[in-house]
Specification:
alpha/beta, eight-stranded mixed beta sheet, about 300 residues, two-stranded antiparallel sheet, Aminopeptidase, hydrolase activity, acting on ester bonds
Length: about 300
């Protein structure tokens, strides 16, 4: 478990008072580009995909009103879409700072997409929040968390455009795997920032040392979640519950699995009515995990989820 405690107080705003426009502008002014979406995400996508895959641009994020640039948004879909096959959705980079969510999706595209394309229709959105990827950030430039904005009339363009892309496929989604990480910076930066933004006290929880899954309270499917944990166990450590039987404050449902009410929270996993839904949480700050291992854990989850779907 991560022992890291948050800074007190957060350096922006007045404790107990929600941020206004001035505080949000100050927060935005402190963000810096740290890596390149064009080089690390777009270039690999354009360099070549498996033959059964096609690259589509599903929109553009334009933050010119904030003095920032624009970002083309890409998805990869099955070139030969078969209406008789089940549909699998994979999303990554909803939180841009969660690196293996993006790089794990790209690796899975290169290594596994072609192997599964004959059995299912595939739609992969590898980096939903490119500004967040470049600035290593949880929020978008409007200080909104895209993973709380998957709802009608979403104020976050990242979420709204992703939902529109999925809806445009015109098909029922059978399986959705959303790729995430839980990092030490959730306690040192992003959690305290959220509390300051909302004028609330920070609810600190130890960061689990290992991989875990977040199912949907309305669609728990415990056998499905159990199969994914079993597959990932051979790749990386599975997080253990704390002394209260919880992970990040939530009751453990089974080893390595907690549930959230995804729809009411506006999470990415709730954007469809898929029967099988899971959110991965990799712990990249563990002394026992490497970036390659984190990427592999993400890909192993996607593959295991497809195999479970096809067995059912």
């Amino acid at each position: 478990m991560s022992p890291q405690q948050p800074p007190h107080p957060y350096p922006i705003g007045t404790p107990g008072t929600p941020w206004g426009a001035a505080e949000k502008a100050l927060w935005l002014s402190r963000q810096r580009l740290q890596r390149s979406y064009a080089e690390e995400v777009v270039a690999p996508l354009k360099a070549g995909l498996p033959a059964p895959a096609e690259l589509i641009q599903y929109g553009t994020l334009d933050y010119a009103r904030l003095g920032l640039g624009s970002y083309p948004l890409y998805a990869v879909r099955s070139r030969r879409w078969n209406p008789d096959l089940p549909v699998v959705l994979v999303t990554g980079g909803v939180h841009g700072y969660e690196t293996s969510g993006v790089q794990g999706a790209l690796q899975w595209l290169r290594q596994e997409f072609g192997r599964h394309a004959a059995a299912v229709n595939l739609l992969v959105l590898p980096c939903i929040s490119p500004w967040g990827y470049e600035t290593v950030n949880r929020w978008n430039p409007d200080a909104l968390d895209p993973n709380r904005q998957f709802r009608p009339d979403s104020p976050a363009a990242e979420s709204a455009l992703a939902m529109a892309c999925v809806a445009a496929q015109g098909a029922r989604i059978d399986l959705h795997v959303d790729l995430h990480e839980t990092t030490d910076t959730d306690n040192s930066e992003f959690g305290p920032a959220k509390a300051a933004r909302d004028g609330k006290a920070f609810d600190w929880h130890a960061i689990p040392d290992g991989f875990y899954l977040v199912g949907d309270t309305e669609r728990p499917v415990p056998d499905f979640q159990r199969a994914l944990i079993a597959a990932v166990r051979s790749v990386t450590r599975i997080a253990e519950a704390d002394g209260q039987g919880r992970l990040i404050g939530e009751p453990l449902q089974q080893p390595g699995v907690i549930n959230y009410p995804q729809r009411s929270l506006g999470l990415c996993g709730a954007m469809t009515a898929a029967r099988f839904v899971t959110t991965t949480e990799v712990y990249p700050d563990s002394p026992t995990a490497s970036p390659a291992q984190c990427n592999e854990a993400q890909g192993a989850t996607v593959t295991a989820a497809i195999e479970f779907l096809l067995r059912g």
